């Protein structure tokens, strides 16, 4: 009986070890919902301010609920960034990932802000100053406008910039279309998801295997672009080391539907959440990117760059071989 019990305990321990080995962390340590893997609560400084930390409660008048990291009214915009969703296309967020808005009753030429009093409580104006931009936003499009109380408000493309009090988490866009006069800001100051504007058809998405003459079997996206992983990233604890200027050269691959996965085990294909709240394709828990230096399908110009960037094979492992020829 003792031997049987010991054997059962040993088998249970082995099973638990196998489960916790997935993505390099334990189920209690990682936040995983289906295929969507988020950074651990305290795995990286990069996660701070994006709603992943411990604690709860309303923050800075931005509504009830868990709004850790929400900007308080009057807080500067910080480093503005561009986010993209299927519904809105590209739009601008503040340094904490909160959506920024414009008001149709304002004007851009000349800049004028007409949201005061109770309006400004629901739509806190973003102060001018202490603001910078990341890839995709022209710093020259930033400006300021004097409000009725004498304070200075940030403008983008001439339009005064606001947050929305009911956005309680990074990535929320509850203010979109409110009253038919409020819209998320596009990177050029126009309305995100603007009606009547011709939108580009989305590029085909997917993951498949390409038999590359130089590297062998490697993974490519729906446009045939080679997918790479970055040695300074980490699968678990989840860490994104390619940020800011790095993203000008290495573009995060978009998540894909499992139906568009060909030639690679579906279990290897997941979605991860970057610190700014955007989603990225991951292979075997590693975030993957495409290289702007690859001009056409089949190019592997990013292979071995800086000794840090590598293509991914059909088993989800990085390809360490140098391009032949």
From TrEMBL:
Keyword Signal: yes
Lineage: Bacteria, Bacillati, Actinomycetota, Actinomycetes, Kitasatosporales
Biased composition (Basic and acidic residues): 188-202
PROSITE patterns cross-referenced by the UniProt entry: PROKAR_LIPOPROTEIN
GO biological process annotation, one example: alkane catabolic process
Source species, domain of life: Bacteria
Name of this chain's protein: Lipoprotein
Signal sequence segment: 1-21
Region entry Disordered, spans: 172-210
Keywords in alphabetical order: Signal
């Amino acid at each position: 009986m003792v031997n049987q019990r010991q054997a059962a305990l040993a088998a249970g321990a082995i099973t638990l070890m196998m489960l916790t080995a997935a993505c390099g962390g334990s189920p209690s340590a990682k936040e995983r919902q289906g295929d969507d893997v988020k950074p651990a609560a305290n795995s990286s400084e990069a996660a701070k301010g994006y709603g992943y930390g411990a604690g709860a409660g309303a923050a800075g008048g931005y509504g009830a609920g868990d709004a850790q990291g929400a900007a308080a009214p009057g807080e500067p915009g910080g480093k503005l960034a561009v986010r993209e969703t299927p519904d809105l296309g590209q739009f601008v967020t503040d340094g904490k990932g909160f959506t920024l808005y414009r008001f149709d009753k304002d004007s851009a030429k000349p800049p004028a802000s007409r949201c005061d009093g109770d309006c400004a409580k629901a739509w806190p104006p973003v102060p001018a100053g202490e603001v910078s931009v990341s890839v995709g936003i022209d710093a020259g499009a930033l400006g300021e406008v004097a409000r009725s109380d004498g304070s200075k408000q940030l403008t983008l493309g001439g339009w005064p910039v606001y947050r929305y009090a009911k956005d309680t988490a990074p990535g929320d866009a509850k203010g979109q279309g409110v009253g038919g006069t409020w819209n998320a800001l596009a990177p050029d100051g126009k309305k995100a998801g603007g009606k009547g504007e011709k939108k580009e058809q989305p590029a085909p998405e997917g993951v498949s295997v390409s038999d590359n003459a130089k590297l062998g079997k490697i993974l490519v996206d729906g446009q045939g672009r080679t997918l790479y992983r970055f040695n300074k990233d980490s699968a678990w604890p989840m860490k994104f080391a390619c940020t800011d200027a790095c993203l000008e050269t290495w573009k995060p691959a978009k998540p894909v539907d499992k139906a568009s996965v060909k030639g690679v085990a579906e279990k290897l294909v997941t979605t991860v959440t970057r610190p700014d709240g955007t989603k990225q394709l991951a292979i075997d828990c590693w975030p993957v990117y495409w290289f702007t230096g690859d001009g056409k399908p089949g190019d592997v110009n990013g292979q071995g760059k800086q000794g840090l960037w590598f293509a991914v094979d059909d088993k989800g492992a990085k390809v360490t071989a140098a391009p032949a020829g």
